[in-house]
Amino acid sequence: MADRHPLFKPLIFVGGIVFGFGLGFSHMARPEVVLNFLQFDDLGLPFVMFGAAIVSGVAFALLPRIRDAAPFTGDPYERRLKPFDRNVLVGGAVFGVGWGFSGICPGAAYASLGVGNVTILWALAGMFVGAYAQGYWRSRRQTRDTAATGAD
């Protein structure tokens, strides 16, 4: 990996501020708004997501045509295609169930702290425990699979 530009981390921080402000401004950092969307009572969330997708899509389509490499890292622009497999389906379903139970997605959960929702710390703690449990489960499974193929 190339050396990062000295403004890389401050720029990421500013991007986070803009992201958090946008989530707060659009009320997407409030779990009740997200739950209302999931119950088809408030359809504002798709408009916020669609607006973000348009801006991101334009940037991802145009930047590689303007520059050969990312300005702050020097890394070449390239696509990383993830195969659509069982893990994607199961992981997406589990993520959706968690989103439905908590009423908030991970990005908005952090922004929700900024608008004073301290009880969201329970959801964040659950996300960390769930991610740790999945990582632990995967490492145990890989160790077991490696031991099984090594015995052959």
UniProtKB/TrEMBL annotation:
<dbReference type="Pfam" id="PF20398">
    <property type="entry name" value="DUF6691"/>
</dbReference>
<feature type="transmembrane region" description="Helical">
    <location>
        <begin position="108"/>
        <end position="133"/>
    </location>
</feature>
<keyword id="KW-0472">Membrane</keyword>
<dbReference type="InterPro" id="IPR046513">
    <property type="entry name" value="DUF6691"/>
</dbReference>
<feature type="transmembrane region" description="Helical">
    <location>
        <begin position="45"/>
        <end position="63"/>
    </location>
</feature>
<protein>
    <submittedName>
        <fullName>YeeE/YedE family protein</fullName>
    </submittedName>
</protein>
<feature type="transmembrane region" description="Helical">
    <location>
        <begin position="7"/>
        <end position="25"/>
    </location>
</feature>
<feature type="transmembrane region" description="Helical">
    <location>
        <begin position="84"/>
        <end position="102"/>
    </location>
</feature>
<keyword id="KW-1133">Transmembrane helix</keyword>
<keyword id="KW-0812">Transmembrane</keyword>
